[in-house]
Design brief:
The chain has helices at residues 18-24, 40-45, 66-80, 89-97, 119-122, 183-189, 191-196, 201-229, and strands spanning 2-8, 27-33, 48-51, 84-87, 102-113, 116-117, 135-143, 150-154, 162-165, 169-172. It is of the alpha/beta class. This is Glutamine amidotransferase.
Length: 230
């Protein structure tokens, strides 16, 4: 049995549609909620480490000191060379540890939209989103591309949507793990953010019905391809 350890910031942002694929590939999954960070030994022993999304910024360590511990764990994992996946806040933490700037974007990017894959992206596990298949975007912060990283995808609003370092570090600003069948928990959990951004949850709900199943299937193909070819 292989082990996947996932750092989780809010309860409804979990591995979602990725979980059944990982389990089918022989991984057991353990979540480490905020305040229950894994030990360094546990973090480095895991066959796959994941840092999930959340509604805070990597620059908020004065308000949320736990971010310093998370950054240190990300740094240790990068040094180890073992597989590391960062989604949204997790991708931003990887970028920050690699000395790239992370900062608020011009506006929030929330909703379903297509990716523009680079040539490297088209040859990566992101290729399942080629052809402008929509993905779920849900972020306000953006990051510069770290030195030595390979850009995989962009959007007009966010030039750096995904990057990788070798085959074992994958950072995704968007949410391919989101499961359309569980989107209601996102809409309720982020109700204040949606209201502040003047985004109608009814529109997101309707768009999810139209594209969510295809996006889920592409996301599952992405994670399956990555864990079997790193």
């Amino acid at each position: 049995m292989k082990h996947c350890l996932a750092m989780q910031h809010v309860a409804f942002e979990d591995l979602g549609a990725f979980a059944p694929v990982l389990e089918a590939e022989g991984f057991s999954i353990r979540y480490c909620p905020v305040g229950a960070a894994p030990t360094e030994e546990e973090w480095l022993d895991a066959d796959l480490a994941v840092v999930l999304g959340g509604p805070i910024g990597v620059y908020d360590q004065v308000l949320y000191p736990i971010l310093e511990r998370e950054k240190e764990l990300v740094r240790l994992r990068l040094v180890s060379g073992k597989p590391l996946l960062g989604i949204c806040l997790g991708a931003q933490l990887i970028a920050a540890v690699l000395n790239a700037r992370v900062y608020p974007g011009k506006e929030k990017e929330i909703g379903w939209g297509a990716l523009e894959l680079t040539e490297a992206g088209k040859a990566s596990p992101l290729r399942f989103f080629d052809g402008y298949l929509p993905v779920l975007h849900w972020h306000g912060d953006v990051f510069d591309l770290p030195e030595g990283a390979e850009l995989l995808a962009s959007t007009p609003m966010t030039p750096h949507q995904a990057f990788r370092i070798g085959n074992r570090v994958l950072a995704l600003q968007f949410h391919p793990e989101a499961d359309v069948d569980r989107l209601e928990s996102w809409l309720i959990g982020h109700a204040c953010e949606l209201s502040h951004a003047a985004i109608d949850p009814r529109r997101l709900r309707q768009e999810s019905k139209r594209v969510g199943i295809s996006a889920r299937e592409a996301g599952q193909a992405l994670i399956r391809d990555w864990v079997t070819h790193w």
